[in-house]
Specification:
The chain has helices at about 5-10, 20-30, 60-70, 70-75, 105-110, 130-135, 145-150, and strands at about 15-20, 45, 50-55, 55-60, 80-85, 90-95, 100-105, 120-125. It is α+β, with helices and mostly antiparallel strands and about 160 residues long. The chain has a single domain, classed as SMI1/KNR4-like (3-Layer(aba) Sandwich), CATH 3.40.1580.10. The protein has a 6-stranded antiparallel β-sheet, with helices on both faces. Helix 1 crosses helix 6.
Length: about 160
């Protein structure tokens, strides 16, 4: 997927997109996030109040940073939460095992249970952010949430 395709599809669901702010880039660096995980996110992201892709909501930079402050266990488990599915499942960029890939994390299994392992209740839905922003527009073919993704992958 090209960077142009990523930017073009990202811009369809946001009133404004652009390069990440210096504050956000500094926050990312302070968390040790680098490499493949930043290939697309470090180039362009939604501005203002965030955006949408099909049924997915994309978080603004400030929402991404606030989510980490409120739930640091996601980042500790190797997930940077960048948005949510329509049912509240989290959309995250994976940072450790397959850096840059996009995953859904089950809110029903994870919220309220700090001992739950995020990896046990997550499923990969895209190879990277570019793949995600292109495929998420196809609400018939792309999973709606973590449960739907698990079902499409054979349970």
């Amino acid at each position: 997927m090209t960077m142009k395709s990523y930017v073009d599809n990202l811009s369809l669901g946001a009133s404004s997109i652009g390069p990440p702010s210096p504050e956000f880039l500094g926050w990312i660096a302070s968390r040790g996030i680098s490499g493949a995980a930043l290939r697309y996110l470090g180039h362009a992201w939604v501005k203002g109040d965030g955006g949408h892709l099909g049924t997915m909501c994309l978080s603004s930079e400030s929402e991404i940073m606030r989510e980490d402050d409120e739930e640091p266990r996601w980042l500790k488990a190797g997930f940077l939460v960048i948005g949510s599915c329509g049912n509240g499942d989290m959309v995250a960029v994976e940072l450790l095992q397959c850096p840059g890939s996009v995953w859904f994390m089950s809110h029903g299994e994870l919220w309220g249970d700090d001992s739950a392992d995020p990896r046990q209740f997550s499923v990969q839905v895209a190879t990277d952010l570019a793949d995600f922003v292109v495929r998420a527009w196809d609400i018939e073919a792309f999973p709606l949430d973590c449960y739907d993704a698990q079902e499409r992958n054979g349970g």
